[in-house]
Amino acid sequence: MDTNVLLFNPEAIYAFEDHEVVIPLAVIEEIDRQKKRQDEIGRNARVFSRLLDSLRGGGRLSEGVALKGGGKLRVEINHQAMQITSVDSDSRTFDNRILAVAYYFSRHCSDPVILVSKDLNLRIKADVLGIAAEDFQQDRVCDPEYYSGVGEIRLSKDELNAFFRQGKLMAPPDLRIYPNQFIILKNQTVPSQSALSRYFQHYFWPLAFGETVHWGVRPLNKEQKFAVELLADDQIKVVALTGGAGTGKTLLALAVGLEKVIEQRLYTRLLVTRPVIPLGNDLGYLPGNKKEKLKPWMQPIFDNLEFLSSNAPKPSEVIHDLEFRGLVEMEALTYIRGRSIPKQFIICDEAQNLSPHMVKTLITRVGQGAKIVFTGDPQQIDHPYLDDSSSGLVHLVERLKGVETFGHVRLVKGERSAVAELAARLL
After folding, report:
1. Model pTM?
2. Side-chain-facing half-sphere of 270: CA atoms under 13 Å
3. Which residues pair with 409 in a beta bridge?
4. Which residues 6+ apart lie within 8 Å of 49 measured at CB?
């Protein structure tokens, strides 16, 4: 097992049932180098170190100890003497030391040997040496076309008229559909005649909130109407909005959140958080107090809030006043752990950069009377160990799509500007 698997999921050793899991000593050395980091990778390194230490009570790690649920774990010394120099002469690198262990077992073990790594290049090097190599699959979504939250069916003219007349329509019993999934009802003879609906408890219902204006913002297309429907319905406690840049995910979530907190007073605070993961090279440590350090990371949120407050003479003063009164709070995801957050409207922006464990950690912070919204684009992942099939955001959508208090919609059309839509579509 490679180091990056354990930094992604420190409990990955339990995912292999009755097989034998081998941890090269080089992996433990790499884990030790990461344990002082003050982020999710550092936390996972510390969790795995404690887990490995607890397993020492079951025997010598070098000889193998039993794992709960079956299987065995062993820590193996580095087989640096193995002749793999024809492929790469530098046997001092961690990757090559891990590869040497896998190479040794592939030549001296009667059972099949598989190198598990999230490092694509290491898997390629293993293949060159004739070693079977796989990505860690436990938290991956098999279908890259994850649940969109939107479907379409064709009805007869009489059925469509019955929907408008009665304000609901019973769904066909054999239709595979999920709670709070949005269905476009189309006339099968005249496709231009259609209606927007939401499925719930065996019926198609017309949208109750899709046309409403929140904090001066009106939805501009059908997917945005679906998003507002989920955001404005207080019976839906967990919402996921996915889509490309400029589709309105964050703006709509902020607009509805401000309306719910300030105008309707249904929640005590609008709490906005996002993971601190840079695009490109990091700027390093930033000066100032916590608020000043957070501002560069939260600037996209401030941009949206200024847009929503653009009718005021000084939008920045409006935002400052909301923060001063405690109605709006910006918080780094790092500081969420350990908190209990009741009666707040919570928005987690850039959620595509969260691992499944981080998503679970955040949702378990949600207290009574609170609502949480995840926004993000699985095609713009900056996290080093995630992709669009292992992102916590996609994982959340696939795991909760059958729950009645959850809703998801994938926004398609960009509304930021013609230039932004052109770039998102063609570049």
Report:
1. 0.76
2. 24
3. 241
4. 31, 32, 35
- Token pair for residue 413? 């059309």
φ, ψ for residue 333, nearest 5 deg: -60, -25
- Intrachain domains 3-134 and 214-426 with the same fold: yes
Mean pLDDT lowest for which of 8-12, 67-71, 72-76, 140-144? 140-144
User: In the chain, pLDDT over 70 holds for what percent of residues?
Assistant: 88
Can you tell me the distance from the alpha carbon of 344 to that of 330, in angstroms, rounded to the nearest whole number?
13
Q: How far apart are CA 198 and CA 235, in angstroms?
A: 14
DSSP per-residue codes, 13-69: GGGGTTSEEEEEHHHHHHHHHHTT-SSHHHHHHHHHHHHHHHHGGGS-TTT-EE-TT
CB distance 356 to 395 below 8 Å = yes
| CA 263/CA 232 separation, integer angstroms | 13
Nearest one of 249, 299, 301, 246 to 270, comparing CA atoms: 301
Amino acid at 56: R
- pLDDT for residue 315: 86
DSSP letter assigned to residue 342: -
> Kind of pairing, strands 269-274 and 203-206?
unpaired
Exposed/middle/buried for residue 94 (C-beta within 10 Å: 0-12, 13-18, 19+): middle
CATH node for 3-134 = 3.40.50.1010
Radius of gyration of the chain (CA): 25
Residue 137 banded pLDDT, cuts 50, 70, 90 = confident
CA distance 272 to 332: 8
Closest CA to 266 of 340, 327, 180, 329: 327
Q: Quote the CA–CA distance of 3 and 117 in Å, as a whole number.
A: 8
Please give the CATH topology (third level) of the domain spanning 214-426. Answer: Rossmann fold (3.40.50)
Where do runs of H (alpha helix) occur along 136-194? 157-166
Tell me the three state secondary structure of residue 128.
Answer: helix
Domain ranges of the chain: 3-134, 214-426
